[in-house]
Structures are given as structure tokens and as C-alpha cells.
Write a structure and sequence with these properties.
This protein has nine helices and 15 strands. It is an alpha+beta fold. The longest helix has 36 residues. The radius of gyration is 26 Å and the shape is elongated. The protein folds into two domains: 158 residues, no CATH class; 190 residues, no CATH class.
Length: 396
């Protein structure tokens, strides 16, 4: 055999090996992913087919399904039509090797049960770490396309779950590649339709590298028709709604283990009446009486609505919502005016850090020291305050 023939044989053999490896790669990846999903602590999962896209450094996983072992409800914790994992080329052009994930048609079912074992809320696993096990590079961008999220609680039937559909959103700059070497924040924004068409939006910023949860979140839910949540009203406050609309605005920020925020629910044109079911507790009777009082006696005559601003603050381990602040807010609204139906923009990371000593009783030793400490903290957090981008605009 001549030298030229030997080289040709080697090239053919190498080509055969590469082709065989390429053909076997999807099966190897499928086996690897299924193995990872089967080794979860409190959950079990499996996938369908795997497609490899070598030319763009990507692969796709079809028919993902993850279930909670011992869950109280027979619904999967998570499933998705397809998951696309790939190198993020726009970051690669800037010299950073990171990846991106795109979930197509994902569904997340959250279930609160009477016991921790029966609950299906996902807290038992580090899902970010599980996702990063599926790709060799850290994820910088996560996108959701046409997703759904549902929530169930004890006493609520599966068909009456509070569900958000048409969930579309993204989280960008998780690895801080936009300004490497500086402290920047990841931005997120999500839009959805809840309870048959009510628009909802969540946006904000977070620091993925902070030792404790650090984030700034704004949430809006508008034009919910109250009769749609009658199963929940009957179960938890023993009341039914014949008519009325509900809106919710919420701002929340957390830093250094502390949080501060407010929730602003607004009821419009409400027609509530008592359920015929027997009351189960004094607290429920008190809440029902308060509802009647707020919706009828204290109704804003001009706007025909009742609104409350519910402030809350505390530590991550011990959240504390003030009932007296809620009642005071309803009374003030009833006799003065209805709250404007828009976010105030008043809760930020600066507010949280500025009031750390008020939350947990810490101090710097004396009034003068407290004043200096507050001033220093304000100056520091002003530089570090995240700036969420406007809806629809990617940080990248």
C-alpha cells in the first residue's frame, strides 16, 4: 500500500468515526440529561428527544417533564415543549464565553399543601445549578416563550387554580458580562395574562452574586373580574362576589437580609355577599365583617372603589405585615380619596438599606453615629442602586 493510499484510509476512518460520533451524540446527551433528572433529591424527571446543532454550539431538548415525589396533587411540577441551550454569540464577540437558555411552552405548577412533604413549590432544589449542569458554560440569558404558571392551595380544585398564561419574559446579564469588573445587576421583565385575560407585568433587577437575596421588583395586575376567584373567596373568607374588579400593585426590594415594600390592592364596583357555609374561625368572621364594612360603609362614593396600601418590612427569615397599617390605609382612603392606580416608584434598594437599623434594632452607637451611618449608607447605595430597564428593552 502506497503512502497516498494509507493517508486516504486514515482520512476515511476518521470521517467514519466523526459521523458515527455525531449520530450517537444525541443518544449520549439524552442519557446524560435523563440521568441528571433522575438523581434529583425530591423530584424526578425525564425528557424526550435531543437534537444537536454543532454549527452554532447548541442543542435542544424536547418533552421535558419533572414531578415532585409525594406531591399532594397529581400535576407535574414542570414541563416544557422544548428547551434550547446555546452559546450566547453576542457575548462571545465581546470576549465572554457564556450561554443562553430558551424555554418554549413551559408550564410550572405550584402547589401549597397542608404538609411540607405534599407541597410542590420547588424550594427543595437549586434549579439554577441543575440548569447549569446541562451546558458547559454559565447562563447569562434565560428566555421564556408562551409559558404558563398555576398556583393551587388546600381546598381549591385543580380547575380553579390561579393561572397565568401567555407568559413571555427574559432575564439578562446574569453573569455580569455587560460591565465586567463592576457591580451591575441582572434585569428581568415578564408579561402575562391571568384569570382569562387580566394583564400582569413583573419587572426589576437582581444581583445574582450577592451573598443574600438582593433585588428590586415591581408587579402590576389589572382588571381581574372578582367572580372568577369565587372559589378562593368562599374557601378563605366565606364570601362570594357577584360583580367587581380587582387590581394589585406591589413594590418590593431586598438587600443584606432585609426587605421593604408595599402591596396596594384596589376593589372597584364590588358586590360581595356572605357565603351560606358555616364559619370555621373567629378570624374568618372578623375578616368577613371587615370586608362588608370596607366595601359598603367606607366605599369611595366618587370612584366607587376601595383601596388599601399595605406596607411591610422585616428580615428575609421573619417577614412581618402590619394589620393595623392595612386598616388605617383603608380608612384613610375611604374618607379622603382613592389611590391612584399606578406604581409609586417609592420602594428601592436604597429604602431597604437606609432602614436596616429600624428593622432589626442595630445601631452604630449614639445619635451622632447613627446619623453618620445613615448618610454613609445612602451614599453607598445610591451608587449601587439597580436600574431596571423599561419593558420590552433588553439589557444586552
Amino acid at each position: 500500500m502506497t503512502r497516498k493510499q494509507k493517508v486516504l484510509v486514515v482520512l476515511i476512518a476518521l470521517a467514519v468515526v466523526l459521523v458515527a460520533g455525531r449520530l450517537m451524540m444525541p443518544y449520549a446527551v439524552e442519557r446524560y440529561v435523563n440521568g441528571k433528572l433522575q438523581s434529583l433529591d425530591s423530584y424526578r424527571g425525564h425528557i424526550g428527544d435531543v437534537d444537536i446543532h454543532l454549527w452554532r454550539g447548541a442543542y435542544s431538548i424536547d418533552a421535558i417533564e419533572i414531578e415532585k415525589t409525594g406531591a399532594a396533587r397529581p400535576v407535574p411540577f414542570f414541563k416544557a415543549r422544548r428547551l434550547n441551550l446555546s452559546v450566547e454569540w453576542r457575548s462571545l464577540l465581546r470576549g465572554s464565553i457564556v450561554s443562553e437558555a430558551e424555554f418554549l411552552g413551559p408550564e410550572l405548577n405550584l402547589v401549597q399543601a397542608d404538609s411540607k412533604e405534599g407541597s410542590q413549590l420547588g424550594g427543595e432544589e437549586n434549579w439554577n445549578a441543575r440548569l447549569e449542569e446541562l451546558f458547559p458554560f454559565r447562563f447569562n440569558t434565560v428566555q421564556v416563550v408562551d409559558g404558563a404558571v398555576s398556583f393551587l392551595a388546600p381546598g381549591i380544585g385543580t380547575r380553579d387554580a390561579i393561572t397565568a398564561r401567555q407568559v413571555n419574559g427574559s432575564i439578562t446579564n446574569l453573569t455580569n458580562v455587560l460591565d465586567a469588573g463592576k457591580r451591575t445587576f441582572a434585569n428581568f421583565q415578564v408579561g402575562a395574562q391571568v384569570l382569562d385575560g387580566a394583564p400582569a407585568r413583573v419587572q426589576g433587577s437582581l444581583d445574582a452574586f450577592a451573598p443574600q437575596p438582593t433585588f428590586d421588583v415591581n408587579l402590576e395586575v389589572k382588571q381581574v373580574q372578582l367572580p372568577q376567584v369565587n372559589p378562593w373567596l368562599r374557601e378563605y373568607i366565606k364570601a362570594d362576589a357577584e360583580a367587581g374588579k380587582f387590581e394589585l400593585y406591589l413594590e418590593l426590594a431586598a438587600a443584606d437580609g432585609k426587605f421593604a415594600g408595599y402591596a396596594k390592592p384596589i376593589l372597584q364596583d364590588v358586590d360581595l355577599y356572605r357565603s351560606n357555609e358555616e364559619e370555621q374561625s373567629a378570624l374568618r368572621r372578623l375578616w368577613e365583617g371587615f370586608l362588608d364594612f370596607a366595601a359598603n360603609a367606607l366605599e369611595n362614593p366618587e370612584a366607587d372603589q376601595v383601596a388599601a396600601r399595605i406596607p411591610f418590612s422585616g428580615t428575609i427569615e421573619n417577614p412581618d405585615t402590619s394589620l393595623f397599617a392595612t386598616i388605617s390605609s383603608v380608612l384613610r382612603n375611604a374618607f379622603v380619596s382613592a389611590f391612584a392606580r399606578s406604581l409609586e416608584g417609592s420602594i428601592t434598594l436604597r429604602d431597604v438599606k437606609k432602614n436596616l437599623r429600624e428593622i432589626d434594632g442595630e445601631g452604630t452607637g449614639g445619635d451622632e453615629g447613627k446619623a453618620k451611618g445613615a448618610k454613609s449608607e445612602d451614599q453607598k447605595t445610591e451608587r449601587e442602586k439597580p436600574k431596571p430597564g423599561p419593558p420590552g428593552k433588553s439589557a444586552n
